[in-house]
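Lab notebook, bench 4. Continuing the backlog of folding jobs that were queued last week. Each job is logged with the same field layout so the records can be merged later without manual cleanup. Today's entry covers Alkylhydroperoxidase, a 180-residue chain. Filled in by technician R.K.

JOB TYPE: sequence-to-structure
TARGET: Alkylhydroperoxidase
LENGTH: 180
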Amino acid sequence: MPRTAVPNPEQVPADSKPTLDAFTKNIGFTPNMLATFALSPIAFNSWATLRGSLSKALDLKTRESISLAVSEVNGCNYCLAVHTFGAKHAKMSADEIILARKGHASDPKRDAVVQFARKVIETRGKVSDADVKAVRDAGYTDANVMEIVALVAMYSLTNFFNNVFDPEKDYPTVEPAGSI
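JOB STATUS: finished
OUTPUT FIELD FOLLOWS
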């Protein structure tokens, strides 16, 4: 059950409105999570800036795979629904989506990233030297490793936000992890 009401457009703070309007225009509707998040212009606009910057990191399928792995570990059903929808639009197959939720990918290079991202969230960043070596050996630079960590943190932020406020789902729900 939602812990805060989704604001109507008149209730969105003026400092959040331009950012929220841009998302609405891009997506075609205003997701409940974004409308709720917009109640704090500081948090919302900071997240949106981070998201915009990190949209240049790695490729879309890799970012969506990371989002699915992190959201699965964090138990965020809202984000799993959003990112499953996004992954389908990124031309990921149902099998690829399931693999990502389990912390893997069919592509060996992407698999190294997804495994590393999952280890980052599971260990709270206390990964081993071997974990870092594995992602480097797959062809990723230290800058890429930093981007992966930043993506894990960004997806965790929205996971935690949604787990705390539990906005009403407005994307198709996904099967529980135990059934995949």
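OBSERVATION: The mean pLDDT is 94.
SIGNED: R.K.
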